[in-house]
Design brief:
two-stranded antiparallel ribbon, 338 residues, 11 helices, BirA Bifunctional Protein, domain 2, alpha+beta
């Protein structure tokens, strides 16, 4: 004679097979396997059985529960497959698909990544700093006198609390020296802001990579070697690099950097690409005063700094005639760099 549990199993399997949809199937599941279901109730009765009977009935109970659970899962899978088949029945596979366009990095971002990778190979670490700065980090610490035209409101964006939008990323160099003792080799990549009249070659917001190297016995030869390597990696191995004397308040001597390359569309024309020079001793003294020590002793340490305009480099490398194209989000322009 069949055990009541076996009879429950057979009844449950018949009801599972006769269920017409998932809703009806769930009613069967609850009726047998739910907290108050017929099969679940046997679990509560186990404690009333004799010690000899308990393992036999326990094994049978597990077999019944597993059989009913498996049958419900199989039936559920069939219902879902049927739904999917019905949904696909009306699909015309001959219709063309929806086209998807692939995105790409903005040309300026590509330029930054390219520059950072080259400098990383030369041992430079990437430093960061705030876009909103104070006058000390932007001007005073960089040996820029109060009467310098860059500090005029016609050239710099001042905020109501006296702070300003940084006019160059050299502020990061100062912050790096405040935080880290020499030797130091860092680059700072980011946006800078000036009150320039917007035209084909000028923008109120532009982008820079600036570098700083401080160590013992650093010379102009080190500076020239680093920048020549960078520019030849960027524009091609045949690129000629020329350094011309210039003036910056935070470097002495100061130089402007020009390149000429047959790989560029401008051919044999010399193009200005950067400013650089040896770190002025007054900059080291300002950092020492802020730190409260003499870690950057100009008698012991020397260094060089440089600034590269990434917008300008991108315009030269990609032959872009108008700087405003970088900010207009015109897909006809941006797709060229995908």
């Amino acid at each position: 004679m069949a055990h009541p549990l076996e009879q429950l199993r057979d009844d449950a399997l018949r009801e599972v097979d006769s269920a017409l949809d998932e809703k009806a199937l769930d009613v069967v599941r609850v009726g047998y396997l739910g907290r108050n279901g017929s099969i679940s109730a046997w679990g509560e009765q186990m404690k009333t059985l004799d010690n000899e009977e308990r393992p036999v009935i326990g094994k049978l109970l597990n077999e019944v529960r597993n059989a009913v659970t498996a049958a419900i899962e199989e039936r559920t899978g069939k219902f879902r497959s049927q739904k999917e088949s019905e949904a696909l029945a009306g699909l015309d596979v001959s219709l063309p698909g929806t086209p998807h366009e692939y995105g790409a990095l903005h040309p300026l971002h590509q330029m930054h990544e390219r520059g950072i990778q080259i400098f990383r190979r030369m041992g430079f670490a990437l430093a960061d700093g705030p876009d909103i700065e104070d006058e000390w980090h932007c001007f005073d610490a960089l040996n820029t006198p109060p009467e310098h035209p860059a500090r005029n409101e016609q050239d710099t964006f001042y905020l109501s609390d006296g702070r300003l939008l940084r006019t160059h990323t050299s502020t990061v160099q100062i912050r790096a020296m405040e935080s880290v003792p020499p030797p130091l080799r860092v680059i700072a990549s980011g946006a800078a802001y000036r009150r320039d009249e917007v035209d084909a070659t000028h923008s109120a917001q532009f982008h820079q990579i600036e570098g700083l190297y401080v160590d013992e016995n650093v010379s102009v030869a080190d500076l020239k070697g680093e920048l020549e390597f960078f520019l030849r990696e960027l524009f091609g191995s045949e690129t000629e690099v020329q350094f011309r004397p210039h003036y910056f308040p935070f470097t002495e001597p100061s130089l402007e950097v020009y390149v000429r390359s047959k790989a560029l569309k401008r051919g044999e024309q010399w193009i200005e690409v950067a400013g650089c020079g040896m770190v002025h001793p007054a900059v080291f003294e300002a950092v020492n005063k802020a730190r409260g020590d003499k870690v950057y002793d100009p008698e012991k340490w020397s260094g060089y700094a440089f600034g590269l305009g990434m917008d300008r480099l991108a315009m030269i490398l990609f032959d872009i005639p108008d700087i405003r194209l970088f900010a207009q989000n015109d897909l006809r322009f941006l797709k060229q760099f995908a």
